[in-house]
Design a protein that fits this description.
The protein has 136 residues and is of the alpha+beta class. The chain is built from four helices and three strands, in the order H-E-E-E-H-H-H.
């Protein structure tokens, strides 16, 4: 059952990419995550990542991470590296990575979205006792 949260996260991120072409204000819900795109007052697209895996929320709340130590650009760069490595492992048939991750490094993800996705990668590493990015 350890792979279930990863499947749900990946499915939802794929839904995020697909939702960009869907009507604004629509929500795409996929198992463990909900990703919504909405138009703000400035007519910019906003993304929201909601993880329904209560173990992730508990994990995140019980760790002493300081959000201010990260910039959004740093998080986006790290998420791109994580997504690339995730997809590489998926392509070679590593069963722990059971779906393709469609992460767009050029999308305008806000800080909260980038932070939660980055923390999910950290959560996945800890729960599955493996490093996604080698040498880190």
């Amino acid at each position: 059952m350890k792979n279930v949260p990863s499947i749900l996260v990946l499915t939802a991120i794929v839904a995020l990419i697909i939702s960009c072409g869907v009507q604004r204000g629509a929500a795409s819900k996929s198992g463990g995550l909900t990703i919504k795109d909405t138009l703000s007052a400035q007519d910019s697209l906003e993304y929201e990542l909601v993880v329904f895996d209560s173990a992730f929320e508990y994990w995140l709340e019980t760790r002493s991470f300081n959000k201010s130590q990260y910039s959004n650009q740093y998080l986006k760069n790290r998420n791109r590296l994580y997504a690339d490595e995730w997809n590489r492992r998926y392509a070679i048939g590593d069963r722990r990575f059971d779906s393709y991750l469609s992460y767009d490094p050029f999308a305008n993800y806000d800080f909260e979205f980038s932070y939660r996705l980055f923390m999910y990668f950290k959560y996945f590493e800890e729960v599955n006792r493996l490093k996604i990015l080698p040498g880190r």
